[in-house]
Specification:
about 270 residues; alpha/beta; Rossmann fold; nine-stranded mixed sheet; globular
């Protein structure tokens, strides 16, 4: 089911909850989880019913506004914020394994909210622990490869990569080309996190999407150029039960640019839990 919500102009007022608390952006104290291997924020006094996973290069703070008033946790994924990096290279499945123990301290089934990279982890978590996941809210997630892939890398980099394979240039020179021509995320990453990024950006999640039995809300900005809405539409077709909401005039960063819309989807999924 596709819904379209323009976020320019008057907002709807017939909501089931008073969302005025979303205007409050006070910082929540940092907490540790999983024997100190993860850090983040805990909202509310009772066992968490919502887990929020941020995007690449972001932190748990992205969800401060949309989780206010809930029993929830928003964690710094390994290698971001206060959480130490993984000790091995892997993709979204590795991250799902690392954060899976958090579910054991929650009131399950939970709603898992994932933005961008966090959504990649969320679909693996749903596949890994289906009984513990009662719903997903995904936003701006590169769940599938683009229908029309972006242009090829710069010619100089492609030549350098070929010369490296032939043993004509060394690793240091090739790494310099990667720093120059790679994405901003690639240039900002280093060490094991750079290797993890390379792994993750080449992943696609068709099998995970087909395996998810929990209902899924896909909340997408219509101006998302990091994970275009066509990805969300194709992902919706693979899911057993899904609702796609396109937000007019919103970019990739829905948790911070449209927290009210994300909160509505979270509340919808919480209302459906038994």
């Amino acid at each position: 089911m596709l819904c379209f919500r323009p976020l320019t102009g008057p907002r709807a007022t017939n909501r089931s909850r008073d969302l005025s608390i979303l205007g409050q952006n006070s910082h929540v104290a940092l907490s540790s989880f999983v024997d100190g291997s993860l850090y983040g924020a805990k909202f509310g006094d009772d066992s968490p019913r919502v887990i929020a996973l941020h995007g690449w290069g972001r932190t748990h703070r992205d969800f401060d506004r949309c989780l206010s008033g809930l029993n929830a946790v928003s964690i710094d994924l390994p290698g971001f914020g206060a959480s130490p990096a993984p000790t091995q290279v892997g993709g979204a499945a590795l991250y799902a394994e690392l954060i899976s123990p958090i579910l054991d301290s929650c009131r399950t089934p939970v709603v898992v909210v994932g933005h961008s990279f966090g959504g990649r982890v969320a679909v693996h978590l749903a596949e890994r622990r289906p009984a513990a996941i009662g719903g997903l809210v995904l936003t701006g997630v590169p769940l599938l490869h683009r229908a029309h892939r972006k242009g090829k890398p710069a010619l100089r980099y492609r030549v350098g990569r070929t010369l490296h394979r032939w043993g004509l240039i060394n690793d240091t020179y090739l790494e310099g080309l990667r720093d120059k021509y790679g994405s901003s995320d690639y240039r900002a990453a280093s060490g094991i996190m750079r290797d993890i990024l390379v792994t993750v950006v080449n992943e696609s999640y068709e099998s995970q999407l087909r395996s998810i039995s929990a209902p899924v809300d896909l909340v997408w900005g219509d101006g998302d150029d990091a994970a275009p809405p066509e990805i969300a539409a194709r992902a919706e077709a693979l899911l057993t039960e899904a609702r796609l909401t396109l937000l007019g005039g919103v970019d990739h960063f829905v948790p911070t640019t449209a927290p009210e819309a994300l909160r509505e989807a979270i509340d919808r999924r919480l209302d459906s839990l038994t």
